[in-house]
Amino acid sequence: MPNIFGKEQHEYSHLMDAKERKLLDAHNKQLALRGMVHDFQALSNPLKAKLSDTESAAQALSYITNNQQAIMAEVDEIIYTEFRLPGMIPLKTSGIPEGAASFAYRVVNRYGKGKFIDNDGKTAPSATVSQGLVPYTLEYAGIVPEWSIEDARKAAFGGLALDTETIEAGTVGCMDHIEEVAFVGDAARSFEGLTNNSDIPSDTASKTFANSSALEMVQFIQNGVTQRIIDTKEVFGRNLKIELTVYMPIAQAGLLTDTNYADDASKTVWEYVSVNNLWTQYTGKPLKLEIVSEFAGAGAGATDRCLFGFNDARVMEMGIPIMPRIIRTLEQAFGVIAPMEYKISGLNVKRPTAMEYWDGI
Is the pLDDT score of 331 beyond 80? Predict the structure, then answer.
């Protein structure tokens, strides 16, 4: 049976992916903790919702309020298919209570190295650990998708599915704000982002990419990679096997991927340097390139900036204890609203020395 958007279960790719990986039960269990599950029999067998109205409530309102699960299914689908942040920075979406006003991460420094011992066995060194907690605040945010009375009446009495544009506008609006905070922060709340974190060291490139040859672009990437290995070896030790990412503005990333490398004209600069660098030789992993338009003009003197860093929770993370979700559906005047909420922190950089900005590229 289709839901209120006229969709069958198999039309939701996030649900099909969860089912394929045998995660559908766990997915619905998590939703059940919030008082909802994705019910695709809602039209013929609507769920009983606690309506604030009496039995004389309009059928159009009941039609929507009894199908909040379908609205949340649509929200999940949009987030699953369009959210770009997880591929760029780590997101902490569990382990933080929803009502928390802040969360903290633990900074751990390990000391001690083995050495030879004397025959009495008393000269072995101690392995010690120092720990500290660094707190970060969390803030609520939201948006209110709204359907008119005409939308609701047509859906209830005309057999027409509700439009998906309204809930998509709300969900994408949430994600746009989360991504903006992740990349550029929010000065009013003292949040810093990926492009302007004051803890991350910065340097200035000797040439812009526009004025660099293919060889000079290769050397710039190779030098940045080598410096990250030098600066992070003591932090990560022998476990340093995660992806190293180069974050670039659109124009510079375009030059890397469009310019042929003169010494091997069959490859672009990026195709060559992504595997011919010290990081790939050290870990066996190619470099990763992420295009972040917000890096344009983010450097000193409004110059373009790039970043060498790690998409790893040991280096940085953003707290999102509440992903965009519907609170409940409500009647408002002659229409119906579905207020959405989410809760986020700024981008928390735990290991600034594992990252480096380059300005003037």
Answer: no
